[in-house]
């Protein structure tokens, strides 16, 4: 009886230890750039490995602090290419919106010029049918800061 009790106790002890699993911690995202205030009109870009994530406050619902994201892999300079398309649009305003298709989302870049200041807005729609969102209008200086081209 003692042996059975000791054996069952050891089994429970080994089973309890088997429930603990040690895993590697994931790398933390690196902030590339951020514009806006902590509570209003925030847009930020982070990068984890080769995954680039845009996080923005949905301007479709400015009264609610609803944040949306879209992402893509930075392969073959995709992030620099995205910056280049936006920068080119701010310099030479296109007549039509620019459509960028990502693996899970579609981003529509809308450009405007008011009081001699060019701005861009990103309208995001998700390929899975869920509700997308829109960023606030961003100037060239804000885009440069967002993409890490300016400090402060």
Tell me the fraction of residues in β-strands, as a range.
Answer: 35-45%
Number of helical elements: 3
Question: How does the major sheet shape up?
Answer: 5 strands, antiparallel
Alpha-carbon distance between the termini? Answer: 74 Å
What structural category do the secondary elements indicate? alpha+beta
State the order of secondary-structure elements, H for helix, E for strand.
HEEEEHEEEEEH
Radius of gyration: 23 Å
The average pLDDT is 84
Number of extended strands = 9
Helix content: 25-40%
- How would you describe the shape? elongated
Low-confidence stretches: none
Provide an overview of this structure.
Helices cover 25% and strands 36% of the residues. The chain is built from 3 helices and 9 strands. It is elongated and about 90 Å long. Strand 2 and strand 3 (51-57) form a beta hairpin. The strands form 2 sheets. Strands 5, 6, 7, 8 and 9 form a 5-stranded antiparallel beta sheet that branches. The protein is of the alpha+beta class and 152 residues long.
Quick overview of this protein structure:
This protein has 152 residues and is of the alpha+beta class. The chain is built from 3 helices and 9 strands; from the N terminus they run αββββαβββββα.
């Amino acid at each position: 009886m003692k042996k059975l009790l000791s054996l069952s106790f050891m089994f429970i002890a080994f089973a309890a230890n088997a429930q603990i699993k040690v895993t590697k911690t994931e790398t933390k995202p690196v902030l590339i750039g951020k514009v806006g205030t902590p509570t209003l009109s925030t847009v930020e870009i982070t990068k984890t490995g080769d995954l680039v994530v845009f996080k923005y406050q949905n301007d479709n619902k400015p009264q609610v602090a609803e944040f949306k994201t879209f992402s893509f892999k930075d392969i073959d300079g995709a992030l620099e290419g995205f910056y280049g398309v936006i920068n080119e649009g701010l310099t030479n305003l296109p007549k039509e919106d620019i459509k960028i298709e990502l693996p899970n989302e579609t981003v529509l870049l809308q450009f405007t010029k008011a009081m001699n200041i060019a701005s861009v807005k990103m309208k995001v729609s998700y390929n899975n049918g869920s509700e997308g969102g829109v960023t606030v209008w961003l100037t060239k200086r804000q885009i440069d800061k967002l993409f890490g081209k300016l400090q402060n």
